[in-house]
Automatic annotation (TrEMBL):
Keywords, ordered alphabetically: Aminoacyl-tRNA synthetase, ATP-binding, Ligase, Metal-binding, Nucleotide-binding, Protein biosynthesis, Zinc
An example Gene Ontology molecular-function term: zinc ion binding
Cited Gene3D superfamilies: HUPs
Function: Catalyzes the tRNA-independent activation of glutamate in presence of ATP and the subsequent transfer of glutamate onto a tRNA(Asp). Glutamate is transferred on the 2-amino-5-(4,5-dihydroxy-2-cyclopenten-1-yl) moiety of the queuosine in the wobble position of the QUC anticodon.
Residues that, per the record, bind ATP: K231
The protein's required cofactors: Zn(2+)
Motif ('KMSKS' region): 228-232
Record-given protein name: Glutamyl-Q tRNA(Asp) synthetase
Domain of life: Bacteria
Binding positions (L-glutamate): R9, F10, A11, P12, S13, E45, Y172, R190
Glutamyl/glutaminyl-tRNA synthetase class Ib catalytic domain residues: 9-235
InterPro entries in the record: Glu-Q_tRNA(Asp)_Synthase, Glu/Gln-tRNA-synth, Glu/Gln-tRNA-synth_Ib_cat-dom, GluQ/Sye, Rossmann-like_a/b/a_fold
E.C. number(s) listed in UniProt: 6.1.1.-
Amino acid sequence: MKAPHYIGRFAPSPSGELHFGSLIAALGSYLQARANQGRWLVRIEDIDPPREVPGAAETILRQLDHYGLHWDGEVLWQSERHEAYREALNWLRQQDLSYYCTCTRSRIQQIGGFYDGHCRTLNHGPENAAMRLAQQHPVLSFEDRLRGKLVADEQLAREDFIIHRRDGLFAYNLAVVVDDNYQGVTEIVRGADLIEPTVRQISLYRQFGWRVPQYVHLPLALNDRGNKLSKQNHAPALPQGDPRPVLVAALTFLNQPVIAHWQDFTLEGLLSEAVENWALADIPLNAAMNTAFSNAPH
């Protein structure tokens, strides 16, 4: 059977402008897709309005364009995908693979932080309730193409997690799986801060009977206090001037070769050389690993 054509993606949330940490994820996914003669898609994950900054989505797209990271096809906006998410939720309900839960966050914290399935057999209605997946396919480990086998905390893997929030918003894990499957994504290259939800997402793929993509989790850029660069930590936005020095810094961070006299290359030429020289295996692993995960012994 012929392997599917490579499709990668970058899927930022519009909660602020892209920063150097975002560029690492965007550049890594872009280079991996181009090095595999594949397509590179961009999706705006705008399903959490309280966290979104007006105008941020348009700014993100301008930043990607400024840095030469040109995507294929149309941008997919999650805010236009509600019907697809409702269909997925309805299918899970019809298969008896989900249920309504009225447990509060404080109750879950009091029992140790992982949900215990308390509402699974109580037949609650949707009023003032979240919807949880009735976990049938716990994923205790998965293979990361950069990090090897990653082993999850068993309580995390077996938890009935939320797929539709009490406030009426669609949960991230549900939306990302529905959209990656819809777009035919074959490999997900993203930051190591998203290692933990991967086991939940793989379990959803299996619940729906969909093909599971491959995963690569890149190292995280940290600030001088050892915290990951993030919008929450007020990481500065990407510079608006010459993008080439910033791209060279990102390539260096990813331990990729930088061509001599890169200053003489155009932006397109610099990225073309980066694609040509891309070596996934050379990327360092010095990411901030989530405490719920460990590298399995080899």
